[in-house]
Hints:
CATH architecture of chain B: Orthogonal Bundle
Number of helices of chain A: 11
Helix content of chain B: 55-70%
Oligomer: heterodimer
Number of strands of chain B: 4
Strand content of chain A: under 5%
Largest interface: A-B, 55 and 52 residues
CATH class of chain B: Mainly Alpha
Amino acid sequence: MEFFQLLLSGLANGSVYGLVALGFVLIYKATEAVNFAQGDFMMLGAFVMVGLVNPEYLGINFWLAVPLALLIMGALGYLLDLTVLRFMFGQNQTAVVILTIALGFVIRFVAGLIWGHEPLSLYSPLALGDFRVGGVVLSLADVSVIVVTLLTTLFLWQFFQRTKLGLAMQAASQNQMAAYYMGIPVKRVQGAVWALAGIVAAVAGILYASKGTLDISAGFIGIKAFAAAVIGGFGSLPGALMGGLIVGVIEPFASRYLPSGYSQLAAYSLLIVVLVFRPHGLFAQVRTKKV
Amino acid sequence: MRFHFKTTYDQDIRLFPDRWTLSVYAVLLVLMLVMPWLINDFYLGEMTNVLIWAVAGLGLMMLTGQTGQVSLGHSAFMAMGAYLSVNFMAMGLPFLLSFALAGIVTGLIGAIIALPALKLHGVYLAIFTLALAILADDLIVILAPWTGGVGGYFAPPIYIAGVEVNRWVNPWAWYYLALGTVLVVTLLYQNLLRSPLGRAFAAVRDSEISAQAMGVDVARTKTIAFGISCAFAGLGGALMGLFAGAFNNETFNFLISIQLLMMIIIGGLGFVHGAFLGAVIVAFLPQFLSILTDTMGSSSIPGLEAGIFGAILIAFILFEPMGLYGRWLKVRTWLELFPFARRDMFKRQKSYLKTERLR
């Protein structure tokens, strides 16, 4: 029973990592850039939700606030692309990486100014219910996190495989100039993907905030989500979810069965092992570049 | 306006291209040497801090600016330098020897760690090194017998030739220690850039494929670059730890390495001057901000420093990717060519990305 309990909490945590990792992968897939601020996006999404729902702020009904929060974060993602990232169009990856790290700092600062530095908790209907199935305590939050994550991943995966916009996004990243020749409005497509990443971040943020308290350093789970995205192979959506689940499940088991002090090492050690032996992740999409 | 009429190839790689440059740096050196008589102890301490950051910044500059590999894990190597130097001193070695040894050993370990990391490019390397920086925190706690664990270390007293170097008793001695280290590191750095190895670094940065085609051993070059970079970072970390007086597992967290990276970008990636200009910003920005918030009458705002730092960095990447030193180069060119300078001389080339992925 303990095994299942650990597995469940691992899967729930892993789903949040997976969702943040999905945000990385989305942007990477469509713009070839890596958004180091995705974790802070998630934190911002959660705080926007807190600002909408909690009685000390606006106090809107939770289910009404969800689409609003998604909308706000989507708009924010699009604006960010419009005002900052579009200037980096065609520049190399490293500059964008550093730019997004800096963006993360700014987002954290702004969130701290607006919502303060004390831990807050979201008034979420998901946080209330617990039920038991054969000795395993299932909390409503954990189950809903897992379900929503699976649905989101499935949706995004199909979106990239099937829809015209999804294919345009892939084309825009694979060869920007060729995409232009094919009549794809590359810059607008990239704006759309940033908006999508904002929405995914909001979903992740709402779920994260439903699971526990929230403060402005919540964005640092982005680093674990990185591990997840890399383990899954950057650029693969199901891979990102798999990576997230692997990292999420390893953590509770490591802290249960390994001596204290060593348990925090587990996720990052796995990351390093994967990078050394399978540099492009478990679901690799890269082959050696030919000249 | 100066003209360089070159008659030998040696002139291309001289440390100082002409007498004017030489005299400018000579004046700067004299100014740095008499600094303790010019400013009070507080600002001397700040200057020491600038120089220490510059040593670590030169380390990262070697890797990121010259060889084009991004590392977010240099805080780990700075921590290694700090702990190694204290451990060597505890073994009874004199300070200067243990300080140098700390740098060398950190460099060797860095080169060994670089071996598996060599296969990684760009973002993957950044994430690999970020993982190293985060692991370092936990490893320091686990290796408590050598690192003091969570309690950390108090910096032991430093003696150089019988003179005690103490931040509070004789700040000028600390200043000269940092200045000496900076001079040695900068000279090493400059001379390395003039050597075939330095040229190989630049070749790897600009295009790994063409470097390989020109006969550069890319793997070896990257390993050496990583090693040297870590050695400098180790020296900087040792100075930083000893200067702070006490350090533990949280002193060198991964935010330090991000700050280091931001610093060299604001200063100017690929220029020795950039490391120094960036160090000035890093060391004086907190003071400047605290003075500013004091005069505006408000209490300190948490996170302000990081937020402003991030905003400055964004502005630089968008509007001045070559950093402060790049801006100075533009101003200087404008002055030298007046009135013939044109806006488009430094224009960014338009480029389009292609993926390396297949699906």
